[in-house]
Amino acid sequence: MTIPLEGRYNGPKRGSSYMKKQTTFAQDYKPQFSGHETFPLRYGWLEKAFEAVDDSGLNNKKIFSESAAIAHFGVGKNMVAAIRFWAQVAGILTTDGKDVRTTEFGQQLLGPNGCDPYLESASSLWKIHWDIASNPKHTATYWLFNVFNESNFDRDTVLRRLMEFIDQRGWKLPTEKTLSNDISVLLANYVPSVPKRGPSEEAFNSPLTELGLIRRRSSGKFGMNLGRKPSLSNGVFLYAVCDFWERTSSANTLSVQSMLLEPGSPGRVFVLEEGELIDRLADVADMTDGLISWSETAGLKQLLRQGEFPQDFAESLWSSDISALRGSYAA
């Protein structure tokens, strides 16, 4: 499959002054372990938040704080705050001064001509997951996928290791309750709730549980799922590779080991094994019209590129999935 790129990346190339996005915790980094009001993301929240803001274009913050918001969303004050929090974390909404507005990504996904208004495509969820888990701004999620190295764990292990990491970084240690709540929310975002008798619990699950990245094991244990990711599309995967490349290096080579193991890499964020990573890169030249190619010389496995990526090149790869999805809806 060739990723359609014509007309998508003919803009000017980024010069040496281009500011690379952060991929690790900076020296002056301020961690965040709250904001979600102890509610994980739920089905329908991103769509509701987008609709509330987009109905009147640019909306002020009162859309989420005034008493009418409770009636509009049909939930309590704390849950309204959680809906706004997750919409911003997922990149659907952003704050602009005193106003809250929809993002380009939000419009592309959920707008009047959006390709996936009900978040039915796994590609949309993989893109949202990448943007969250590859960004150090989202402290606990980034740490779990990019720093934490235990394949099987329970909540207490995660709490203990996170507290140790906070101490090593010299950050101010939050209360144990705050960290415990944040870990519970993080795990609930990726692990489906235990089925119970009675009404379906699906509505209370997070859509990110569909990705199957963390699995519930016996005796209160969890484990990272290193199995293959068939729902991860080529477009989103290559978007992540190029986004990571742009963030971390100006070189024209990128090693498999970097893509597999470095913090903020596709291997870490998507929980990939080396075999699947290499398989996905085998046809990269065809998928990018030769802009990127695979190389294996003297045992060194890496990607080569012709030069700096043209402007918005990484986004064009993700957009290929958007276009394909729009076409499937129209069919």
UniProtKB/TrEMBL annotation:
Record-annotated DUF4007 domain positions: 33-310
Pfam families: DUF4007 (PF13182)
Highest taxon listed in the record's lineage: Bacteria
Protein name: DUF4007 domain-containing protein
Lineage: Bacteria, Pseudomonadati, Pseudomonadota, Alphaproteobacteria, Rhodobacterales
